[in-house]
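Hi there,

I know you've been waiting on this one. I reran it after we fixed the sequence typo, so this is the corrected version. Both the input and the resulting structure follow.
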Amino acid sequence: MFSTLKSAICICATLIFYTAVYVEATIPAAPQESDAVVVKMTPERKFMPEKITIKVGQTVEWVNDDNAMPHEVTTDPNVASDPSNVSIPEGTEPFDSRLITSGKSFRHQFTLPGLYRYACPPHENDGMLGEVTVSK
């Protein structure tokens, strides 16, 4: 009797194992967030690169690589030192990261095509300006 019970347990364990492997293999993976295009904010008070081109739906991540000072990313004319330094396509809303401390980042997904001109208000007068061109 013990031998029969042991065999039954082994068969059940084997079936459970193969069922788990099969179920795991057939469940689709969760969608992965696409890699963001990275723009670094440097101690030289520059966006690197200053101009990028991406496709609709892509995300840009601005990373503060400056150990000494915070930076900011804005397309909002009410936040920029000089409103003529920023612009967005018609029908879009401006974005603003607020101050980004060293080692931190800000991400924005672009959902409409066009030219987005942005600035770092604390260093705008030093020429810390950038552009994202979003194509279809």
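Quick highlight: The chain has one domain: 37-135.

Best,
R. S.
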